[in-house]
Amino acid sequence: MSDDAPAFARVAVLGIGLVGGSFAAALRAREMAARIVGFSPGGDAERARSLGLIDAVATSPARAVDGADLVVLAAPIPALPGLFGEIAPDLGSETLVTDCASTKKSTIAAARSALGAAYPRFVAGHPIAGGERRGPDASRADLFEGGTVILCPQPQTSPQACDTITRTWRALGSTVVRLEAHEHDALYAEVSHWPHALGFALCAAIASGERAETALRLAGAGLRDTTRIAASPAALWADIVLDNREAVLECARAFEHHARAVTDAIREGDRAALLECFELAGNWRRRMP
Amino acid sequence: MSDDAPAFARVAVLGIGLVGGSFAAALRAREMAARIVGFSPGGDAERARSLGLIDAVATSPARAVDGADLVVLAAPIPALPGLFGEIAPDLGSETLVTDCASTKKSTIAAARSALGAAYPRFVAGHPIAGGERRGPDASRADLFEGGTVILCPQPQTSPQACDTITRTWRALGSTVVRLEAHEHDALYAEVSHWPHALGFALCAAIASGERAETALRLAGAGLRDTTRIAASPAALWADIVLDNREAVLECARAFEHHARAVTDAIREGDRAALLECFELAGNWRRRMP
Prior knowledge:
By secondary structure, chain A is of the alpha/beta class. The first copy, chain A, is 51% helix and 13% strand. The first copy, chain A, has two domains: 172 residues, Rossmann fold (3-Layer(aba) Sandwich); 103 residues, 6-phosphogluconate dehydrogenase C-terminal fold (Orthogonal Bundle), CATH 1.10.3660.10. At the A-B interface, helix 7, helix 8, helix 9, helix 10 and helix 11 of A face helix 7, helix 8, helix 9, helix 10 and helix 11 of B.
């Protein structure tokens, strides 16, 4: 446990998929939580307990947060408004609340309308972590090491709450970056939500074509990398792109402009136009760390 | 050297980038070539010699192939017709010729019109290997291990020539698959050429947007994988998609149909339609080895 790492007596994790399970595992590995209680509507919490990721399974979100000094929501986006409403009456007067959702404007709006007096102790967060594997079995105590976590504190957010959540993620190995919620949503529409939609569309096109089987057998490493995100949980991503609809559609428009320029250049045999686009893309991409 | 591996007295490699350099390195590592001579219009052949990938640098394609029992063309697509023409008069009566180009219909047409009596000893090939690094310095003797090589022999192709080229690639660790040239071009338009164009277009859209710099810093692993191919050599890929224009445009149309279905579903909040597309895509993608 690093000197600056917070220590919690009781942590409630609501939603125990890859992210919730990994958060619990990471806290335990660093001895930052004396007790971790989990809740999930299906069997994930039970599975997480048998894997040793959490200490106990709560029968409801309200029971999970009872007596907790930290509550982490790691449930799918559509479940969040209901969860905020269910836990609000049972949050202690010092309890910190944070979340891990991929969109922030709607999460913050849901928290604001449901949490009441606890809202200043809610710190909206988004660990940039995930993958095509899901559930407690995919959880890893090192998932957040070397990663980035975006926090979107609001004017009402207590600086102390924000500081504790920041130190928690740093103790788990992540760099913490603060963004405005609308800026977060626009940025991740561009670098994550729309690229996921695109990856799904590309695979759907190949899967619907007459070469779907041959393609599986003979595609090279390029396609495997390009389409890895299409193996991500479909429902999770449908909910993300729908929740961030406006920003994602704006990315779709910008992309279509460039995709059209590319197909026009191919059709017209315009090598110079094609090169201009490919070089712009490559010069940007090669700067990615 | 495996029992079935051919042994060559003199191999000429025309074009010494990642693929040509790796082919030379792989032959040497397995002692399958007594002498390897390279030609490239720039300094790549000289660099390959100083790296020990080849034994000697020829001053022209014709000199490179003089006395060679195997000639491998690993030059960019636009250079191939000229190379076939330059080497044709100097090919020996037993010399085998193969190539590594990403498109096969145009390569075969160029070989047929230029090689004359040597055409039956030309075996059109395409190792499914590459990457964003290029040039002799990126060459690796194990590039083809565990990979796939497509061969497209023609009715005129000598079975013995095809057999020797097949055993050569197998000795380098690749699985050899035979396809009709038009089937090859349609398949790789779908699983490689169009996905590359798409990856470039996606990066061009982000690079042209107002968040280009933040995106570099805050994008997650998903975008890094999805756009890796956009770091590939721009000119090489411009030439590939232009050479395979018809097939690539057909893939663009199929893709646009699915991309439009996705954006329509997002706009209309049609979760069921989105899920149907994402699940079709994911179910296919998860079957990829």
